[in-house]
Amino acid sequence: MKRYFDNYMIKHPVSVQPMMEIEGFLVRPGMFDLNGATELPIGVNFTIHTSGGTGCELLLFHVGEEEPYAVIPFPESYKIGDVYSMIVFELDINEFEYAYRIDGPHEPEKGLLFDKNNILLDPYARAVAGRRTWGKKRQATYHARVVKDVFDWGDRPQSDREMSDLIIYELHVRGFTKHPSSNVKHGGTFEGLKEKIPYLKELGINAVELMPVFEFDETINAREVDGNTLLEYWGYNTVSYFSPNNNYAALDDFKKEGWELKELIRELHENGIEVILDVVFNHTAEGNEDGPSFCFKGIDNNIYYILTPDGKYYNFSGCGNTLNCNHPIVQQMILECLRYWTINYRVDGFRFDLASILGRNEDGMPMNNPPLLKNLAYDPILKNVKLIAEAWDADGLYQVGSFPANRRWAEWNGRYRDAVRGFLKGDFWESWNAAWSISGSGDLYGDLYNEYNGHYAGYNSSVNFLTCHDGFTLYDLYSYNTKHNEANGWNNTDGSDDNRSWNCGAEGETDDPEVLNLRFRMIRNACTVLMCSRGTPMFLAGDEFGNTQFGNNNAYCQDNEISWLDWSLLDKNQDLFEFFKFMIAYRKKHPSIRKKLPDAQCGIEGLSTYNIHAEKMTVSRDDRIFSNVFAGYDETQQQDDLVYITMNAYWDEIEIRLPDIGENMSWYLSVDTFGDEEGNYCFSEEKERRIKGSYVMRPRTVAVFTGRKNPEVSSEA
Questions:
Q1: Which one of 250, 373, 490, 596 has the lowest number of neighbouring Cβ atoms within 10 Å?
Q2: pLDDT tens across 246-298, in order?
Q3: Phi, psi of 541 (to 5 degrees)
């Protein structure tokens, strides 16, 4: 090392003096509170921290090269506490990649896995270097690139929609447009998804939930089954939390990492669609004792992971390791990560995979008031960002209705899924749970109308869903009695056996018109109930046109026609697509479904359950039919907003009466999933039929009635 005492001035807006020359590079102590690598006018600031490491080296690589052209050790004088920081002068961020090597003790029984020869990825890397071919195993070590964020977001304000006003559409970026039938230019990419924005807008959804888009390794457990290559297609094996997956970029975005994703998000926003990211903070791609060591293991294994007393990995995630989320260092990384995606990508929300793990202590035990969840709930940058928990983990910790909410978190409501699935197919013992679920799950989340209860407000707490990536599609839910995961190579032992599904009389594909007619009616039933339930509806991409996974309810490894959306079904099942459009629009039109309104002037209570005689009831555990009413005064429209939904899960027709709403108002039939003589299932306002007193519910049918003033009264007014 050659020490510099002469005054040296770089010709840049910032005037800073180098203090040393190391391996031919001018350097000085850096900005210790600026994690990761950051471009400065005079060079690049590199900051990394390690608690157990005894020495650290910065490695610089020419673009695409595996051997470093420079190794710059951090002097001990460039360390404060556990943090190493160094400015390297006159580096051009377009001309290099970087990584680290950290020395320290190698004592696996104590959880210490330091190796001075191991090349390590920066945990705060904003981009993982090296574009590769999807499905081809990475042969090189992981390097990072320095990102210069110059994307102009303009002055568009952050969305102020409530959770209950969202209609969430869950999709996989690759699978959404990879099938040739998608007819996009860049199938399987962010660009391909952007080409489909007009379709999303026509459908009417106003939020997309993207399955993992952080850099992940789809080849981590690649294997061959019956001549087919199976990959970790879903993306739940995170490599880098701050980096977008470069395989989802249509073009090599070298020098503009993340640009395509930002353009996609901006265009979605311009079309009124929010973006929620599915994030995986419960485990990483480094796996267990047999997994690779490319980042956290080599930096501070015993800090980043929950370990047993003998240094092994607790596996609450079911994926080999468990991130130690409530260690202050890991908390800081997660908070900075979410802030980064909120600020630099303008993301509107996050869905946390296996979120119950985020509430486990460093010994693996659940905590009463986990600091991470509280910090995220009250962070000022994340103030208006949606936080959604998958409130369970792979070790049996199930917290639906008891997730530490801090009046802030919403939950994927697994009880809603199970109860409504069961009731609609005829499991009448689920009627009590189904009625609560459709009403907003007040039994789980407290008083439905109280914004200040211990949980998030009832109608904002529950994300209602019947399908998601994990399980059957909606078409398969009514086409298969049992899962058919043979293609996964585990002898059909993987995936859930509790599906509450029904094949409607024939297992799998069939040409039987009666079976097909029943299947599509059941799909319409499910759609209608979902859109007429209090809470936030979410459904799986492709459900709106009958997409199938051929009975596979765990298609995590199927990067093929099993998982890709078949867009030819959109033409084939156009009437189903139109039905979904109608129900989405109907939900948007009727705020009484979504939230408490001022009392209706007609006297109907805001939220009640009725029996077939139009009398208020307490649902028993074996009721085969019941109705829910949503009512209130819509101040925007200056009129009552009344919605009455009746669900007949029985196999016989039943006559019902509708409640009296006064002389000047009537109920009008808006939806009947059985259909009329002309094959119509939903009716615009001008085509609705007035219902006088009673209505015959056909077998296994859902009907929706809208209360409004009679035309003659409206004209007189």
A1: 490
A2: 999 998 777 778 999 999 999 999 999 999 999 999 999 999 999 999 999 99
A3: -55, 135
Contact in structure between 695 and 650 (CB atoms under 8 Å): no
**Short-list 155, 147, 230, CA closest to 558:** 230
Tokens matching residue 445 = 């989340």
Q: How many CA atoms lie within 13 A of 185 on its CB side?
A: 6
Give the residue ranges of DSSP H helices in 472-567: 474-477, 513-531
Give 477's Cβ-side CA count (13 Å radius): 32
CA 396, CA 399: separation in Å to the nearest integer? 9
Q: Please measure the distance between the N-terminal and C-terminal CA atoms of the chain and give it in whole angstroms.
A: 90
CA atoms within 13 A on the CB side of 322: 30
How much is the pTM?
A: 0.95
Q: Are 316 and 361 in contact (CB under 8 A)?
A: no
Cα–Cα distances in angstroms (integers) from residue 182 to residues 126, 202, 376, 398, 555, in the given order: 31, 16, 38, 38, 20
Give the residue among 30, 35, 31 at the shortest CA–CA distance from 329: 35
Please give the sequence-ordered ranges of beta strands (E in DSSP) within 567-664, or none if there are none: 607-610, 625-634, 639-648, 654-657
Report phi then psi at 174, rounded to 5: -70, -50
Backbone angles phi, psi at 697, to 5 degrees: -85, 120
Residue type, 491: N
Q: Is 459 exposed, middle or buried (0-12, 13-18, 19+ CB in 10 A)?
A: buried
Query: Can you tell me the distance from the alpha carbon of 215 to that of 135, in angstroms, rounded to the nearest whole number?
Result: 14
What's the rounded Cα separation, in Å, for the pair 568 and 253?
31
* SS3 state at 267: helix
Instruction: Give residue-wise pLDDT tens across range 154-195.
Output: 999 999 999 999 999 999 999 999 999 999 999 999 999 999
221 within 8 A of 233, measured Cβ to Cβ:
no
Which tens digit of pLDDT belongs to each residue from 194-230? 999 999 999 999 999 999 999 999 999 999 999 999 9
- Burial label, 363 (beta-carbon count in 10 A; 0-12, 13-18, 19+): exposed
Q: Could you tell me if 53 and 88 are in contact, meaning their C-beta atoms sit under 8 angstroms apart?
A: no
Largest separation between any pair of C-alpha atoms in the chain: 95
- CB count in 10 Å sphere of residue 291: 17
Whose CA is closest to 258, among 329, 304, 308, 190? 190
CA nearest neighbour of 217 among 199, 203, 236: 236
Active-site residue numbers? 353, 390
Are 626 and 609 within 8 A, CB to CB? yes
Q: Residue holding tokens 């789980």?
A: 444
